[in-house]
Write a structure and sequence with these properties.
heterodimer; A: mainly alpha; 6 helices; disordered N terminus; B: about 450 residues; FAD/NAD(P)-binding domain; four-stranded parallel sheet; 26 strands; about 30% helix; binds flavin-adenine dinucleotide
Chain lengths: ~100, ~450
């Protein structure tokens, strides 16, 4: 195949022999809104938010949302989510170690 | 709540990128040259990918903020069964974000260069350096030119993420004229040309910049540039002026911040004129004619940012179906074109209710990745996606402000709508925000390119 030669050599990452993973994981897409500032999967950036207990994240975000101080970027961001959405985000981030 | 210690510690321990950026053009990296485009990312081992059983062949056109994020997340979330080819005409990406700080020398051009080695080695994305010049939606193939030779790639799903192209006004249609009055709105050679003109401008001269009508990329960006340039001029060429001619009826973003900056911080330096859309540019006379009266405006340096349209391939593929025929209308649940099924459009090239910006292009890409994976698995896209925009704007050489908003899907309007309580801007520019800007940039670029 001609294209195969043209394509920059890219080694396909070997897949781990895990059980079949689902097409979508609850909370994953919502939580990806945090990754621009807290790193892919919540590892890095301003504050590490991966691998904490779900309630720690959820309570913190509810606290920030309630503070409603207009001049804090994280308070504004927290105000973008419903309780149900925060729970999904907290549950997902807790699974990221 | 304030996590200052934590943030300062992060700052100290961040990798070479932020260190280099914070120090500005450090001697060790003294680059400045147009030729210095070393991709900064190094290769690392592959990241484990999930086994989803989902298979498909995806071609992505454009490896900018939207395209490269999509390539990474299709593999990271969809697994190795999704064959992803990223076609990008340049060998490395030059970030527009922070490029206004090349003008005042705070940031080295080389710090804004990002390579594709990492998305290839970590996620198994195939990267092809080529210019896509046609789409055959019936046969599901894209046509490209590489090193002067034509080629084609088959796809199951195609994504166009080509960013923007410009509608140049009369007087700016040749390549020479475009370098004589640089837009510097696609970072790279244009940015360096504008910086060099600024440096060479006589003290007491006028830096004239023009802002196109909405929609254009990075709503606060032009006002940010006016501030950065005014700050540099007042320290380096006293007596010089910045003349801002805005096609819009008023400042389009961070109104309070920029009104204060123009009227107070840069009082006597910045003159702001709304409702002044460029009609003609006379390069020889250094004149810009606008819809604001018949008298032309003179500038020693002309920074003309022309009106935008989606990257050319969008119109060529027949997808520029918004009312003005410039951008692609998409279903924001999946970013699939409303014109041709199987083709998605993300980033600045799409017509949406969200700002054209890199942070949100990154999030649109994640929504698109999730939707494509579900579609390939025979499922429907997430019915209630959320995105967010954030933008840090330098106001002086050491302070910045920010602007942010979360967007949620409105099923009635079938569009993304800003969540009012989440929309806001910094109270005042500060040094803290300026430092945060580099953490944000570093993290955002890693989320896209690494
Ligand atoms: C001065 C300035 C400051 C900015 N600051 C911010 C900021 O602070 N925050 C923010 O969020 N945004 C900012 N932006 C906006 C941001 O840069 C863009 O919105 C963002 O880059 C859009 O991403 P994209 O992927 O749609 O397009 P791009 O990033 O422009 O990427 C498009 C890519 O497609 C490639 N391409 C195009 N056509 C083809 C083709 N036919 N074949 C192959 N490849 C092709 C191009 O080479 C390019 O690499 C700023 C912009 C400017 C100009």
């Amino acid at each position: 195949m001609r294209h195969a030669v043209l394509l920059a050599a890219a080694l396909a990452a070997p897949a781990l022999a895990h059980a079949q993973a689902p097409a979508s994981v609850p909370g994953r897409l919502l939580a990806s809104n945090c990754f621009q500032c807290h790193g892919t999967d919540g590892r890095g950036g301003f504050d590490e938010i991966a691998g904490k207990s779900p309630s720690e994240i959820v309570n913190k975000l509810k606290e920030m949302r309630a503070e409603n101080k207009p001049g804090e970027i994280m308070n504004r961001h927290a105000a973008g989510y419903t309780d149900a959405q925060l729970k999904l985000i907290g549950d997902y981030l807790a699974t990221r170690k | 709540m304030k996590n200052v210690m934590n943030r300062r510690r992060m700052l100290a321990t961040l990798g070479g990128l932020s260190a280099a950026l914070l120090a500005g053009a450090m001697p060790a990296r003294a680059d400045d040259g147009e030729h210095d485009r070393r991709p900064r990312s190094s290769t690392t081992g592959p990241v484990p990918l999930p086994v989803t059983g989902i298979k498909g062949k995806v071609v992505i056109v454009g490896g900018g903020m939207a395209g490269v994020t999509l390539a990474k997340y299709l593999r990271l979330w969809g697994g190795a069964g999704i064959d992803v080819t990223l076609v990008e005409r340049e060998g490395a990406y030059t970030s527009n974000i922070l490029s206004n700080l090349v003008l005042n020398g705070n940031v080295a051009m080389s710090s804004l260069s990002f390579g594709y080695a990492k998305v290839a080695s970590s996620y198994g994305v195939k990267v092809l350096q080529a210019n896509v010049d046609g789409v055959d939606a019936v046969a599901r193939r894209v046509h490209y030119m590489r090193n002067g030779l034509p080629g084609e790639l088959p796809y199951d799903r195609l994504v166009l993420a080509p960013g923007i192209d410009f509608d140049f006004p009369p007087g700016l249609t040749t390549a020479e004229a475009q370098l004589a009055a640089p837009h510097a709105w696609k970072a790279g050679a244009q940015t360096l040309a504008l910086r060099d003109q600024l440096k060479a401008m006589p003290a007491g001269g006028t830096f004239l910049m023009t802002i196109p009508a909405k929609p254009y990329r990075c709503p606060p960006g032009p006002y940010e540039r006016a501030c950065v340039v005014a700050d540099w001029l007042r320290r380096n060429k006293p007596g010089s002026k910045v003349l801002v001619l805005d096609a819009n009826p008023g400042i389009t973003a961070e109104v309070a911040t920029f009104t204060r900056a123009f009227n107070v911080t840069y009082q006597g330096i910045v003159t702001y004129i709304p409702n002044a859309a460029v009609t003609t540019v006379d390069i020889g006379a250094h004149f810009v004619y606008t819809t604001f009266g018949s008298t032309p405006f003179h500038g020693d340096v002309l920074n003309v940012i022309p009106p935008h349209r989606a990257g050319r391939i969008v119109a060529d593929a027949g997808l520029a179906n918004d009312p003005v025929g410039k951008f692609a209308v998409v279903d924001v649940l999946s970013y699939e074109s409303t014109m041709i099924p199987g083709i998605h459009v993300i980033g600045d090239a799409a017509a949406t209710t969200m700002p054209k910006a890199g942070h949100i292009a990154n999030q649109e890409a994640k929504v698109c990745a999730d939707a494509m994976i579900r579609l390939m698995a025979g499922l429907a896209p997430d019915p209630s996606p959320v995105t967010n925009s954030a933008c840090y704007s330098p106001i002086t050489r050491e302070t910045a402000s920010w602007l942010t908003s979360v967007f949620a899907y409105d099923p009635v309007a079938r569009a993304m709508a800003a969540v009012p309580a989440s929309s806001g801007e910094a109270h005042a520019p500060s040094k803290d925000h300026y430092e945060d800007m580099f953490i944000w940039f570093d993290t955002l670029m890693k989320d896209a390119f690494a």
